[in-house]
Amino acid sequence: MKLLNLNDVVKFVEANIGEFHERRAASLQTLKLGEVLKKKNPYLFKAKNINDVHDLVKPLLDAHLSSQEETIFGDFLEKLVIFVCGKVFNGRKSSAEGIDLEFTRKDILYVVSIKSGPNWGNSSQIKHMIENFKQAKRILRTGNSQLNVQAINGCCYGRTSKPDKGDYLKLCGQEFWEFISANDHLFIDIAEPLSYQAKKRSEEFLLEYARVLNLLTQEFMDNFCVDGRIDWDKLVRFNSGKI
User: Fold this and answer.
1) Cα-based angle 51, 57, 62 (whole degrees, multiple of 5)
2) pLDDT in tens, 102-116
3) pTM of the complete model beyond 0.85
4) Tens-place pLDDT, residues 71-105
5) CA 134 and chain centroid, separation
6) Which residues touch 184 (CB under 8 Å, ≥6 apart)?
7) Residue 20: helix, strand or coil by DSSP?
8) Which terminus, N or C, of the chain has the lesser number of Cβ atoms within 10 Å?
9) Residues forming a β-bridge with 32
10) DSSP 3-state of 150
11) How many CA atoms lie within 13 A of 118 on its CB side?
12) Which pLDDT band, with edges at 50, 70 and 90, does 240 fall under?
């Protein structure tokens, strides 16, 4: 085990956080109004008595962005976890299916599935993770049946009251960051460097956001409005009519 140099972490964050902002902005540019409309419930909009096009389009855009941001930032956090663990425990990206990180600590080989937060999946997804853990253990124990392999579901934020899940341990927030770094304050220390160039990036993003919102609103007006009013018949047919 090596002591973690926080300057290394800061440099890593500052060198890589730009990708989050770039991918976030790119997700705006690739958004297609038709694709989003087909995924949403038009009856809900009608039940909420939404008649202002802006009030309909903006939530569509915001929901798309929220989903994209969770995924994009989750990818960044996974890279950060692997980087930190690599510095302290020689952790490495795993080649096993569904496993993100492998490292050895106190003669135990840990296989880790990294998630952003604790409420990340339904029962089917959790079952799939458990199967991945079992398969990874079988492969790693080939030729050494006595190898001590422990499965970890690591969550970068949040808490859990019952870490022991039987087939694996669930570690969240401070416990997880301390587990992969041997530093009980790292979960606080990583917050500050995340703001690197955030003001500048935010201003650029908001300009692009406004541009895309205006374009989508105009497109909706052109295709789903008659005389300035939403054509609900056309919208529902577009969303749910026979192909």
Assistant:
1) 135
2) 999 999 999 999 999
3) yes
4) 999 999 999 999 999 999 999 999 899 999 999 99
5) 24
6) 174, 178
7) helix
8) C
9) none
10) strand
11) 16
12) very high
